[in-house]
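Contributing new records

If you add data, match the layout below exactly. Sequence lines come first and carry their own label; structure lines follow with theirs. Keep one chain per record. Anything else will be rejected by the validation script.
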Amino acid sequence: MIRSLTLALSVFASGATAQTCGGSWSDFIAAATDRAISMGYSRQSAMAFFNGAQQDQAVLQADRAQGVFQRDFIDFSRRLISSNRIQNAQAQAQQQDAIFDRIEAELGIPRGVMLAFWAFETDFGAFQGDFNTRNALLTLAHDCRRPELFRPHIYSALELFIRGDFDPDRTTGAWAGEIGMVQMLPGDIIENGRDGDGDGHITLKTSAPDALLSGASVLSSLGWVAGQPWLQEVTAPSEMDWSLSGTEVKMSTSDWAGMGVTARNGSLPNLQASLILPMGRKGPAFLAYPNFDVYFEWNQSFVYVLTAAYFGTRLEGAPVYNAGNPDAGLSGEQVQQLQRKLEARGHDVGGADGIIGARTRVAIQAEQQRLGMPADAWPTPALLNAL
């Protein structure tokens, strides 16, 4: 789980020891140590935590190599949602039935939602990562790509160390500093760690009840509304104002129904919703409800979020989505070319990374409208050539 937290951000807002990215590693560690002391930690504790910290080049390589998110929704979802994963999820639902019942009763998070995250994050705990967590956090906080996201978690890890729940030399997890079966950053553990098995400890690496209850607590803290859906497959009409699709536009389900959008199964609830067309007007179609927004606080990748949300509905009984017949898309290299052209036209797409994220989709849609094309946010060779 990678998300921005407000926890401890204020400690970087002012002060002579505020850190900057890049530069000497030793100077960075010295500044981090001084910052910890200025926050009230003893010099002995701070030195014990930071002593031996090393920059991890493998972490930086992993941060730069997220090509899997360049895949389109159909390809990505089919790779992640295998029959084996579905069977494992069903088995885990039975095995952890008591904690799922507790989560649903106390927090209102359906078991399908938590099972999907558990499956995607660590394959139900089987692959939790072997990166040294302290070193990973420090490496990413020193790096200039997004240091503000990781710096607060350094001091959250220090706090866990003081409590006896973190070993700087031995605690391991994902390359981005997440720990445990549902991959929680140290700040999330402090804010939302919960003892699910009643042993008096919060052990996210080995206790499924602890990990699941803690992860559900995160979703609840982010605003998940109990009893409401998050995603629903729909059928869109062959013609409509496609510029209304996308996460930026929210309308009532009655308005969507008035335009010809219908539920593929069941009925539409009385909620605000966005029409999501991950592969354009000819591909799969979904209505995303307010709870869907919570997913973007868990992970920023559009294709990951949509796949996780859909898998959650699948585990709650939804059928395999209708893939439709989407127009041919672009390769990763072509998407990068498109992003550079969009940037040249003044759009902020977050960099030319070949990933069709939320900002790229907004820019695509704007250019499609300008060019008189169906504004469904799906990049095609025709759009690339037109730009």
